[in-house]
Amino acid sequence: xxxxxxxxxxAAGRLDAKAYKANFADLYAPLxxxxxxVAADRCYFCxxxxxxxxxPTTIDIPLFIRQIATGTPEAAAKTIFNQNILGGMxxxxxxxxxxxxxxxxxxxxxxxxxxxxxxxxxxxxxxxxSGTHPYTCAAPTGKSVAVVGAGPxxxxxxxxxxxxxxxxxxxxxxxxxxxxNEYGIAAYKTVNGFAASEVDWLMQIGGIxxxxxxxxxxxxxxxxxxxDFDAVFLGMGLGGVNSLCIGGQDRTGxxxxxxxxxxxxxxxxxxxxxxxxxxxxxxxxxxxxxxxxQSKALGAEVVTLVYRRDRAAMPASRYEQxxxxxxxxxxxxxxxxxxxxxxxxxxxxxxxxxxTDGGALTGAGETFEIPADHVLKAIGQTLxxxxxxxxxxGGKIAVTGTGxxxxxxxxxxxxxxxxxxxxxxxxxxxxxxxxxDIHAALRS
Length: 444
Fold this sequence. Notes:
This protein is an alpha/beta fold.
């Protein structure tokens, strides 16, 4: 066992190779041909399908399932990609249990929906693995667009702009494209480097240049982009992390959950990533769930997730909560951190029970301590490097319609903009729709 140099309680290599392989295997094995046909046969092919309405990208779900049922999965993939060019990733990470599958008529009638997400993965994988890209660029318009951020919103926007004949340059501060798909999604949801391969596949359309290691505010400004390009799309996500605002938050062993997940995603070998024996995750969203589950997968003995409100208020879906519980994660609801306890290094997290009075959350006056040598903060992210002249609302870029900001020729979408719900699929839809609006504006 190799101890981490930054705290005695955190170490890498807690498990053997076989355990790591099992713990970070694909969450669901892909459907084979027979399984896909059986799953597709359960669809009623509703003419007023509620699953379409529930999908943020409005994919024609009954049509693509019918295409699978008739033995044409490549055509099914094209139906999906027409609306969602990142349909492969969304098939893996979308909370289908609260979107299309929750709306499925089979779910309402039988409590067992059609496996829409897994069927979407089956179709998109078939086409992507063929090595072909079904889209081409339209005739060049002579217009150029800068896209800031190579995450779901930026990639979706860039692809649709290229389809419409515009020259696109994507700028991203990180070394790789993909945004949260590459750096922020649990490793067991996107195995075998899928995020990177999806970016490579998307770029096959041509007409898009990806410039990594270039950050807005450091390597360029919004004004300079507007001088060089006819339009700008901002899709850089949320780069900052909220502060705990409690005593001891700077103790060794306290880490941002987003960094923890990013380090794991880029580690190559999960055995190289240090984790504590007693891990406490603070938060209630998907980042908190992913950090907790992966801490367990790395060999943490006890993982506790602390959320300040009750279970019903937790942003992460009940499905994800149950998944974490099945992996051994312990939940404590109605509790908020008040102090990180320790002498240099973390040795406990002191929390206070909470209650809700008249809709307001308040401390109940009773405290307790959870043993901890590793505390992961997953309490939300903030916008960093806001360009000049951009109006904000609620800490995000204010947008109207299909992503228009307060500055002329500047659009925004994804997590950095208002109106979304911090889902990959929503970011894809916002990037796509902004691209169509940009296209219309550049033609006028």
